[in-house]
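agent: user wants the full assembly modeled, not chains individually. Plan: 1) parse entity lines 2) check alphabet per entity 3) run joint structure prediction 4) return tokens. Steps 1-2 passed, two entities, 365 residues total. Proceeding.
--- entities ---
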Amino acid sequence: MKPGLLAFVAVFWLALSAPASAATYRVDDSATIPAESSATLRWRHFAPSKGGDNTVEGVTKVQVRLNLTPWVKRNGRLYLVLPEQPPGRVTVRWSTQGRLLPGQLVTGQRALVYAGPISTTLLDETLVLQIETDGTRLNSTHRLNFHFEIDVD
Amino acid sequence: MRLTDFAGLAQTCVAVGLLACPAAQAFTVSISSGNPRAIYLQVGVGSFSGLYNSGGTPLANPTVNIVSVTVPTAAVGSGTAQVMASNTGATRSFYDNFVFCNAGQLYVGGFYRFNNNTAGAGATLTANSATAMTNSSGDTIPFTQISWVSSGNGESGAQPFPSGTFTGGTQSIGTIARNQWAESCMTFSYSNSSIRAAGTYSGTVTYTLTAP
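--- prediction returned ---
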């Protein structure tokens, strides 16, 4: 290998492996597994209302595994993010087993689930998601895309 | 050109993949509607487990209600309409327990649930009055002699099931829009426009709510 190319690779590798600087990063949650293939949402009120309450709701469980390796021994704030997406406004509330914070958010928002030192490379947690949306828009199966991101100091 | 650029970026990622190619950074939860369609129709008395406001759900009630009037002998065929009264006693709406109808009126209500409001029609309420009323001698009075006025306590706008007259066939009574609860109270009257043979005349009108 030519010295110049070797130096480039070395710099590139260092850039990739160096601790992340203060900024926001997407967290590798590729090992996260939903407990069900599809969460079934049912009408909150079986009968429609004159005022138009068409909410459907349902509960599902997600086994979360976050790879925090790049930020070990740093302080950070983890967020659960639900970007804007079809079928429109979705409200999600969740409970946890204690490693992450419970909370709620709607599409287009992120919510804090952890703040403090990152002391583990892999963080496992179970989220029980309660999902609500407008049932008149849920005329097919939709895939809700979540992700986690971290702000590091 | 952008596609070519993207391909080049992807190849770069593969080349260093063992070191730094990022894993998929998102998880998905699929959601679907579990019980998207439902209709409910109540003509006269009905049954509900509690009230809508408290999460109630409709129940089946096979009762056939009676709407009747006794025309005084001196008034038979006078042309003065005779107000009829129902025997239901169903004056409260299962929507909120409000006294929506008055004594003697016939409550007609229902709902239509569907998980798509963007296209398509509502549910249609029809009535079939094809078979005339008969007495024990076989004399008949067609249902075209019966009409109704619709109202609802506390409501001043148009009724979902407006006033009308039976046609002696199948006719539309009204429509329930998607994801709406609709109700009206009907006060029936007999036109009393011709002299009929004495007797008790009875017949049945069947209401049907149909979702597309």
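agent: reporting back. Chain B has one domain: 31-207. Residues 31-207 of chain B form one domain.
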